[in-house]
Design a protein that fits this description.
The complex is a heterodimer of chains A (744) and B (121). Chain A is α+β, with helices and mostly antiparallel strands and 744 residues long. Chain A is built from 25 helices and 26 strands. In chain A, the strands form five sheets. In chain A, strands 14-26-25-24-15-22-23 form a seven-stranded mixed β-sheet, with helices on both faces. Chain A has a six-stranded antiparallel β-sheet with strand order 6-5-7-13-8-11, with no helix packed on it. In chain A, a hairpin with a 2-residue loop joins strand 18 (497-502) and strand 19 (505-510). In chain A, helix 13 packs across helix 23. Chain B is an alpha/beta fold and 121 residues long. Chain B has a single domain, classed as Cupredoxins -  blue copper proteins (Immunoglobulin-like, Sandwich). Chain B is 18% helix and 42% strand. Chain B has one helix and ten strands; from the N terminus they run H-E-E-E-E-E-E-E-E-E-E. Chain B has a four-stranded mixed β-sheet with strand order 1-4-10-9, with no helix packed on it. In chain B, strands 3-2-5-8 form a four-stranded mixed β-sheet, with no helix packed on it. A two-stranded antiparallel sheet of chain B has the order 6-7. In chain B, a hairpin with a 6-residue loop joins strand 9 and strand 10. The longest helix of chain B has 22 residues, at 2-23. The chains are: A alpha+beta (744), B alpha/beta (121). The interface between A and B is large, with 60 and 56 residues.
Chain lengths: 744, 121
């Protein structure tokens, strides 16, 4: 919910009189301040403190249709403009501080700085004033931020920068005013250090911001897919209208080479559509009347008309963008642990700075004052909690975006981390390894039966069944124009088959178990069945009035790329198991063809989840791949559930990973990207930890007793500014990652 | 003598740091009843940074980001699995709860902007 106005598209408004009804319905929703319906555009603009869904419900209750319109692209453009303005302001601040700092530093190198005595003090007073101006202009936000955080019992990055540079300036000014307060050899002034540190930190922040912009390229690419105008057919005329004005069920025209504006169903014409930008599927998909089209995809060849079924924030693209955004914002366990450290980091550094002060004050060489100031200031400046805090989220951001490029939607950071730990992938057979579109391949009638009667009876009993194999048998009968009889007393016996009365005769249709349970004599049929099963076909027995009538064999073609995808999983050391309700012989035949390691066949749908649990008990980290509907319990039980073959319908939002295309390559891509992302996070964390745990002691002067090495605060400032930038740059490397063997 | 005083002050400073940042509680904005609680994101902090709300009520937090730093662009409630993008200069609301008693922290991605929602019985 936001305070912004909510724009709705209103459908089914047939006359201007409807306007009043819709406005009345909207105004009756608690929290609505005003609601204005535009009949010409079929939109409503509502302002107030109210959820869009409440408005949609109210409109639907009043007998109309409604959907929230998306403003994602505008949001993105506004965000980019604001970011660019801030980037420029950082550069400007860095430049001002840089010019002043570099001039002072250059003069120091050339030894043209006057001493603190006599007229030199006027010069130094001017330097102090100019430095103060720079600290206020270029570094003012650090001081304000530090003070505000302090008042709230908090300490952040600003605290460290403000304390480090502020102490340098203050100490230098005090020496300028009262030179006698420290011995002559300790009268070093640090105006140039304070100014250069501010310059470097502003420059680092600007560069980091630029690099960060690239980390969200994936989401920008998705947002960029959104179309601004659509060609709608109104009153027989085709007119171009802004996308916000397209209503539900309106007819739209798409010509070759044009992007499809929103989601819909083709009502006239056909075409090849490139859906690669959303599903990752590299080949164009042929679509005809009745097929769904998705907003943001590209029409390649034909021209067609389609009816809008989802608009605004309901479209697949808008929902994908939202899902990716949510996932990019989430953190895995590894990140949450680091958060705890980052949360107490700054106060701990403050304590370390005081300890450094005490050690140098009590045990340091003369001039103590100079050493104490130098080391304490450097400890404050070098510590960088940002690199630590940024390490995880920035990689997640890039990793989740990268996955989206491959048509893999990862639910959250936790799923991403777990996917990288998978040791066993369990595949459902139908629709996962195979196409999921079975066809009748063989009819073997028993004595006194013929193929036509066998198929006709089998199709008659399967008419009432929703099993995919049943659909294949009914389709085969209808292709041959067989007339089917109605089945009475239909009963599905889970995992076995079906039974019913057809034309007064008792019919059983199913697997060997069903026949054995009813003591049907099968004669030579099991030999035939074994031969078919060894070929990857699924044989089903038909029995009529207690006698075998024959076998109907159905085969589901294996997806062309299943074998290659499984080989990729093997290559990264993952065991592949197939879990299916199909008979053992057919399952083994399919498994052999694609190189699956282990087959668990003849599993009842309800038992799939238990099989996954058994694998987990044996120590495996299980990724379950299934269609997301029939396999929902097993997907939920698995460590990572992959919903496959959902096309562009992102209804299955409960899966940990949704594969937008039907290929098993998506599983290999998801796992490879997860492994790469977790590796990237670990590199970032290692870098940030090492940086801080080496940098802080060195800044404190730990190398001084042995080697006489002390870190210059300017170097510390540069290192600090670069540390966050390094983390962001390393995360950006992930953008170039290509999973080995990936198809797109 | 001088040395003793400096040491004493430094130790006192350490004590102050521990007390201020870990032991002392910042002032909280107490809220009851309906209406959104405005949280301003500016100058590296959330104001108010500590919000006390009664148990069993839904709370609406309205974040207004005036801080252009990219660090401020997200607010994350780790324990509640809520992450919100905060567009610059725009109010963004989130409805939370009802929650059981306890302290729920919210922060930017880097844990530099920090706040907490305290649910009291």
């Amino acid at each position: 919910m936001t305070d912004k106005n909510i724009q709705l598209s209103i459908g089914s408004m047939s006359c201007a009189g409807c306007v009043a009804s819709v406005e009345r319905a909207l105004n009756a929703v608690p929290g609505v301040e005003s609601a204005v319906v535009n009949f010409a555009e079929h939109t409503a603009e509502v302002s107030g403190n109210v959820a869009a869904q409440a408005l949609i419900d109210a409109v639907i209750a009043a007998g109309y249709e409604a959907a929230e319109l998306s403003g994602t692209e505008e949001e993105s453009e506004e965000k980019e403009a604001a970011e660019f303005a801030y980037y420029r302001s950082l550069l400007k601040k860095a430049s001002v501080a840089g010019v002043v700092g570099a001039s002072l530093f250059g003069m120091m190198l050339l030894s043209v700085m006057p001493s603190l005595d006599g007229g030199g003090r006027i010069f130094w007073a001017m330097v102090a004033a100019v430095s103060l101006f720079v600290l206020v202009y270029s570094g003012g936000r650090f001081f304000t931020g530090a003070w505000k955080a302090f008042k709230g019992h908090n300490a952040n990055m600003d605290t460290l920068i403000a304390l480090g540079t502020g102490t340098a300036w203050l100490f230098s000014t005090l020496i300028l005013i009262w030179p006698g307060m420290v011995p002559a050899e300790a009268r070093h002034l640090y105006f140039e250090a304070a100014v250069i540190i501010i310059a470097l930190i502003n420059l680092g922040a600007a560069l980091e911001m630029r690099a960060r912009g690239k980390t969200s390229e994936a989401i920008k690419r998705l947002i960029g897919l959104q179309v601004k105008t659509a060609r709608v057919v109104r009153d027989g005329k085709e007119i171009d209208v802004p996308i916000e004005q397209v209503g539900l069920n309106e007819t739209l025209r798409v010509r070759p080479g044009e992007k499809i504006a929103i989601d819909g169903v083709i009502i006239d014409g056909h075409s090849n559509i490139d859906e690669s930008m959303i599903s990752g599927e590299p080949l164009p998909v042929e679509k005809q009347v009745g097929d769904e089209v998705v907003g943001g995809t590209l029409n390649k060849s034909g021209t067609f008309l389609f009816s809008a079924t989802r608009i605004g924030k309901d479209t697949a693209l808008a929902r994908i963008i939202e899902m990716v955004r949510q996932a990019q914002n989430s953190k895995p366990a590894i990140g949450r642990m680091v958060d705890k450290i980052a949360g107490v980091f700054v106060p701990v550094v403050l304590l370390l700075a005081v300890v450094t002060f005490l050690v140098w004050f009590n045990f340091g060489p003369e001039p103590k004052a100079a050493y104490v100031l130098l080391t304490t200031m450097t400890v404050l400046i070098i510590a960088c909690p940002c690199a630590l805090g940024l390490a995880t989220p920035i990689s997640i951001m890039v990793g989740v975006g990268k996955a989206a490029e491959y048509g893999v939607l990862i639910r959250n950071g936790e799923a991403l981390q777990r996917a990288g730990q998978i040791t066993t992938v369990v595949l459902d057979k139908t629709g996962t390894v195979t196409e999921g579109q079975p066809a009748v391949t063989n009819l073997i009638p028993a004595a006194n039966w013929d193929e036509a009667r066998l198929l006709s009876v089998a199709a008659s009993i399967e008419t009432g069944s929703e099993h995919p194999l049943a659909e294949a048998i009914v389709a085969a009968a209808s292709e041959r124009n067989f007339s089917l009889s109605s089945a009475e007393g239909f009963e599905a016996i889970a995992g076995h088959g079906v039974r019913a009365q057809i034309d007064g005769r008792a019919v059983l249709f199913g697997n060997r178990k069903l026949m054995d349970d009813h003591s049907i004599a099968l004669s030579e049929l099991p030999t035939e069945a074994a031969r078919l099963a060894a070929n990857g076909e699924t044989p089903m027995y038909l029995a009529v009035d207690g006698a075998a009538a024959g076998i109907v064999a159905v085969a589901d073609p294996i997806k062309a790329d299943s074998k290659a995808a499984i080989a990729r999983l093997h290559k990264i050391g993952i065991k592949v198991v197939m879990l299916t309700g199909d008979n053992a012989a057919t399952a083994a035949a399919v498994a052999n063809q694609v190189g699956i390691d282990e087959v668990i066949a003849e599993v009842l749908p309800a038992d799939k989840s238990a099989k996954v649990a058994a694998l987990q008990t044996s120590g495996e980290v299980v990724g379950m791949v299934g269609d997301g509907i029939n396999d929902a319990p097993a997907l939920a039980r698995a460590d990572v559930g992959f919903a496959i073959g959902t096309g562009t319908d992102v209804a299955i939002e409960s899966a940990d990973v949704t594969l937008m295309r039907g290929s098993l390559h998506g599983v290999a891509d998801a796992i490879a990207i997860s492994i790469a992302t977790v590796r990237n996070i670990k590199q970032n964390l290692f870098g940030a930890f090492i940086y801080n745990s080496l940098g802080i002691p060195i800044a404190a002067g730990i190398l001084f007793p042995l080697f006489g090495i002390l870190l210059n605060p300017i170097v510390a400032g540069g290192a600090m500014a670069m540390s966050s930038l390094t983390v962001v740059t390393n995360a950006n490397r992930l953008r170039l990652f290509k999973p080995e063997g990936a198809q797109s | 003598m001088m040395s003793f005083v400096v040491n004493l002050l430094a130790v006192a400073l350490m004590g102050f740091i521990v007390w201020w940042f870990w032991l002392a509680r910042p002032g909280a904005e107490r809220v009851s009843g309906s209406g959104a609680i405005e949280v301003l994101v500016e100058n590296g902090v959330y104001s108010p940074a500590r919000i006390e709300v009664p148990q069993g009520e839904r709370v609406t937090l309205s974040f207004m980001r005036r801080d252009p730093s990219p660090c401020a662009e997200k607010v994350i409630f780790n324990e509640l699995d809520i992450a919100l993008d905060l567009p610059l200069g725009e109010k963004k609301k989130v409805v939370i709860g009802p929650l059981s008693t306890g302290e729920y922290s919210f922060s930017c991605q880097m844990q530099m902007y920090r706040g907490s929602l305290v649910v009291q019985s």
